[in-house]
Design brief:
Order of helices and strands of chain A: HHHHHEHEHEHEHEHEHEHEHEHHHHHEEH
Number of domains of chain A: 3
Mean pLDDT of chain A: 88
Distance between the termini of chain A: 44 Å
CATH topology of the largest domain in chain A: Rossmann fold
Strand content of chain A: 5-15%
Oligomer: homodimer
CATH architecture of the largest domain in chain A: 3-Layer(aba) Sandwich
Low-confidence stretches of chain A: 312-325, 389-395
Largest sheet of chain A: 9 strands, mixed
Helix content of chain A: 40-55%
Chain lengths: 395, 395
């Protein structure tokens, strides 16, 4: 096994021994590297007692490295991949979680704010690229028709303008935001708090499948991990840190969604809040946040959101809309795959991979992305270039 | 005619020659006193040309002092009184309008921000006392059911906690706020932009009559003055300056109500805004104000409003609720009138005035106020002390 593979396995094992986001574990990895950090923990050398106890309790249940290998195999069967800081698609901005500053009530519950050690992802888009131009839309599960409407419009509007819509895949606001983005034919990312083979809630299974087809399902937890309650709060820090800004649509008082917004502000990202009727219990958290968080900004629609996130980056030129411009933005492998396609007839996946000179798996991922971009269409007998008319309609 | 009466007449005449709020006129009155200021203007000595032209044009229509005398006579018939800085009930805080600072678009249209020269009032409450513990509730005429509901609740809640509710008597939010206060059996003040004998809009005539019975109708314009369009904006500065704070409930973009809120902030009063659905055109002005006015504060109900206005004054002990405490707060004349009432039977107005040793008119005003306070009840055959049970129910 190569050193890189050793490191990847160690990262997986570490997320099994201690919950993702544990500061002490992340510090050890920073200091020693993942392999030595894992060995230290397994030797009972964790720097604090509660972590030592947690590692010891877990270790009884199995061999950490063997568990990690099983997780990798399971992910392979699922069509999911592991992403670590060694990969090009690692979203570097999550490192800023190390500087997360929380205020007030959040500080007490928030001991787990270290950056992720690894991600699992299902879907063709490179993770970093998906997050790079993305906005989180979060809110209540028990959303009202008003909130659902607003979240859908935001999801649609952002995706329509070339922004990825990131959320947590929950019922209510999350699902509405994802659906809005899907309806626009855009990119959406669901960041889950459990294994990708058991996305929660089960009622959103069809939605998760659609997201994985054209966007991304992402998790810090290995396949088979259960959606335990504390994991949602740990997960929220990724939604806040990996995106350009977070929009809170509806929330009850002091809910998980308001916490995500506070985290976004804590890492210096715009925290945006959609107001609602003062007569609605589902807007209490939104109004509370607007009153108590000096950094929170009231937004009423996509234009306001873009105003906020547009201030952040320097890559915020208007999104390319013409197919020519889109092609310019493709990476080398995607360009090779696109150029491997014949003008008029479809071609089978294997042939495309071979003509493009890329691995079968790479060809599959790039083709999914090209299809999402409207440059390629899937046919019964393989893939074909999208006709120019369809290209225009899609973009 | 006494010097005081001369001055009062001059003030009335000045509001007829130039619109209330005209800075140049107010400056002359400050420097020379109202009588000399009027003489100067009538002699064509206005400091600027546009004011000279306005005075000349008006003077063609009649003798300014005669017009003022007619206005006084008309007010007398109407049961309205003139209030000037010579009167105890003059609301001194309107003087702060001299320091009004406006920003942005408001600055261009706002040349008329000087304090009032006089007020006309109909209703028993002393004006200063009514304004002293008051909150303005303003908003759109074309209010939605949501806005109407919120304004009614605010009017009710504020009045129920002993605060006077001040608004402009318009359809929509204004009327809802007044009605809420009336429903709570509380004090409400309508500040009009026309003569008190022709309160505008005519459709609210029944409401105006109810307000005058238990609260106050107030105007800077003499009886018979028409509700000209620019007068509403001039009037708004009084609503903003005379109250402890202004709440904006619903407003279209850049409406008169948002202007009132900006004026409140401009004289250092809390400017509060109730959010609403982002899908409602009638909340656009509210959300715009919250986004653009750093001083504006989001409020969702009476508790938030009291938090804001409670910071301002030092007289904000909990309102007296027990009848004993109420009696302690009465002025001498009101106490005399109350003590003139026999224990069990009603007494006619004339007898009460005579027993109390006060003018008939004073007795009438004080009895209205005592009735409003729940200490006195009106019967077919005169006035009587309220039975203790009723006193408790009312307060």
């Amino acid at each position: 096994m190569s050193a890189v593979e050793d490191g990847r396995l160690a990262r997986i094992a570490l997320t099994w021994l201690a919950e993702p986001g544990t500061r002490a574990v992340h510090r050890l990895v920073e200091e020693l590297g993942p392999v030595a950090a894992l060995d230290l923990l397994l030797d009972g050398g964790a720097p604090d007692r509660s972590l030592r106890a947690a590692v010891a309790a877990r270790s009884v249940g199995g061999n950490a490295r063997a568990v990690a290998e099983q997780a990798l195999a399971r992910a392979e069967r699922l069509g999911a991949r592991l992403i670590t800081p060694d990969d090009d698609e690692w979203p570097v901005r999550v490192a800023e979680l190390q500087r997360l500053r929380l205020s007030g009530a959040d500080r007490k519950v928030d001991l787990e704010t270290a950056p992720p050690l690894c991600f699992w992802a299902r879907g063709a888009w490179p993770l970093a690229q998906a997050f790079d131009r993305s906005v989180a839309v979060v809110g209540a599960r028990a959303a009202t028709p008003y909130g659902t409407h607003v979240a859908t419009e935001l999801g649609y509007g952002l995706a329509d303008r070339g922004w990825a819509v990131v959320s947590g895949g929950a019922f209510g606001i999350d699902a509405a935001a994802h659906r809005g983005a899907l309806t626009a034919g855009g990119l959406t990312v669901a960041v889950l708090a459990c294994g990708l083979d058991r996305p929660y809630p089960v009622g959103n299974t069809a939605l998760f499948d659609r997201i994985a087809e054209t966007g991304l399902l992402v998790s810090e937890w290995m396949p088979a991990a259960e959606p335990l309650r504390p994991r949602f709060l740990i997960r929220n820090r990724v939604i806040a840190a990996a995106t350009r800004g977070t929009v809170l649509v509806e929330a009850a008082a002091r809910s998980g969604a308001t916490q995500t917004l506070n985290r976004a502000l804590g890492v210096g990202r715009p925290g945006m809040v959609v107001p609602g009727p003062v007569t609605s219990a589902m807007s209490v958290g939104a109004h509370e946040t607007l009153r108590e968080q000096p950094g929170a900004r009231l937004v009423t629609g996509v234009a306001h959101v873009l105003e906020e996130v547009g201030r952040v980056g320097d890559d915020l030129a208007p999104p390319a809309r013409a197919p020519e411009r889109l092609r310019d933005r493709l990476d080398d492998e995607a360009t090779q795959v696109l150029e491997a396609l014949p003008r008029r007839r479809p071609l089978a996946l294997e042939s495309i991979a071979s003509r493009a000179g890329v691995a079968l798996r790479t060809a599959m991922r790039k083709l999914s992305m090209l299809e999402e971009l409207g440059l390629v269409v899937r046919r019964d007998d393989g893939y074909a270039l999208a006709p120019p008319a369809e290209t225009n309609r899609r973009r």
